[in-house]
Write the structure tokens for this entry.
Amino acid sequence: MNVGEIILADCANGSGIRVSVFVSGCTNRCPGCFQPETWDFDYGKPYDEAMEQRIIDELKKPYYRGLTLLGGEPFEPSNQRELVKLIRRVRKELPAKDIWMYTGFTYEDELAPGGTKHTEVTDEILKSIDVLVDGRFVLEKKNLALRFRGSENQRIIDMKKTRAAGKVMLHPLHH
């Protein structure tokens, strides 16, 4: 897996001050994407243990609320298999930090068991994150007034409430 960019002290991709990791590789290729360079799986720098440790060390700073994983596409199968390791570390070492993930895939379709992007680690990831912003970016539904999403079809899902209810529950920030 490659990482195109890591943004420190980010406040645009989730609530509070965040470390945002933009992974490379995306098969969605949405027209109007704000980062088409991240479609290339080879864009950026290879993700390795040293990069992971820098992310963890940065997240330890008290002013960070959490980690945001986006791209590119973090739920591309090859990216999931690497990101699950980082997610495990955050949950173990920094349990008070929250985790947001962005995906162009939909929770009930591609990420569900039997879905085209469901892997052996997808369920673990979905159970470990706090917020999932799902849905392709749709240029015709672009709305700059929306917080934390680019188009009106995208949803901000509260994953803890969704797991408890057994159905998609939108996060209060969605409204």
